[in-house]
Specification:
Layout (H helix, E strand, L loop, with lengths): L1 H27 L4 H6 L3 H16 L3 H32 L1 H11 L11 H9 L1
């Protein structure tokens, strides 16, 4: 717990220092030490963020829907494979087959254990 509190305060001091450096830089119009150190990597970050913004510009309603449908299709294909495998395993043993029939409404209905509603449905068949 003390480690988290220490990390929090170190981060807070770092943020305050960054704000003060930036304030001094704007006030004196001279680049601060962190600005001079980071000047060499500015073009890398500018290219990186430009690439991201260019990629995001292609996303509109139609492409979003197409990507969502593509992702959903691939998820549902895998889920269906799992469902088919589980169903196959369940139908392999007799107890599972009886349970599947009961879930589908094809199970055996006995007078003494069934509710009034189920007995009425059984009589209609």
């Amino acid at each position: 717990m003390y480690t988290l509190i220490t990390i929090f305060y170190i981060s807070l001091i770092g943020i305050i220092a960054m704000v003060l450096f930036k304030r001094n830089e704007v006030k004196t119009s001279k680049p601060s030490i962190p600005s001079r150190l980071g000047r060499g990597s500015d073009h890398i970050f500018q290219k990186f963020f430009g690439t991201i913004s260019n990629g995001i510009s292609y996303v509109n309603k139609h492409t979003f829907i197409a990507v969502a449908q593509w992702i959903t299709f691939h998820i549902l294909v895998r889920v269906r494979k799992i469902y088919v495998e589980l169903k196959h395993r369940m139908l392999e043993n007799p107890h599972g087959k009886r349970m599947m029939d009961a879930v589908r409404g094809r199970g055996e209905i006995k007078d003494h254990g069934a509710s009034f509603y189920l007995r009425k449905i059984a009589e209609k068949k």
